[in-house]
Amino acid sequence: SPDRVAIVCKLSKDLAGKAHAGELVGAAAKAMNGGGGGNPHFAQGAGRDATLIAQGLAAAEEAATAQLRRP
Question: Read out DSSP for 15-67?
């Protein structure tokens, strides 16, 4: 569907030890009324509302910041 937004995240092995690609994709997709997930290294999903791209990116950034700040 043209209103859908594909989301893909691939993390290097060193970053996958600190962040989780599936959680990042899940946060972005949820903010765009979609779904997705995966493993720590690679994940994919889709948002169902392309008008919410800014919110999806903000959600992914917030999730990444929180994950990278964990001890």
Answer: HHTT--HHHHHHHHHHHTT-EEEE-SSEEEEEES-GGGHHHHHHHHHHHHHHH
Count of CA atoms in the C-beta half-sphere (13 A) of 36: 31
What 3-state class would DSSP assign to 8? strand
Can you tell me the mean pLDDT for 11-38?
95
Q: Global pTM?
A: 0.91
Query: Quick one: which H or E segment has residue 69?
Result: helix 53-69
Cα(3)–Cα(54) distance, integer angstroms: 14
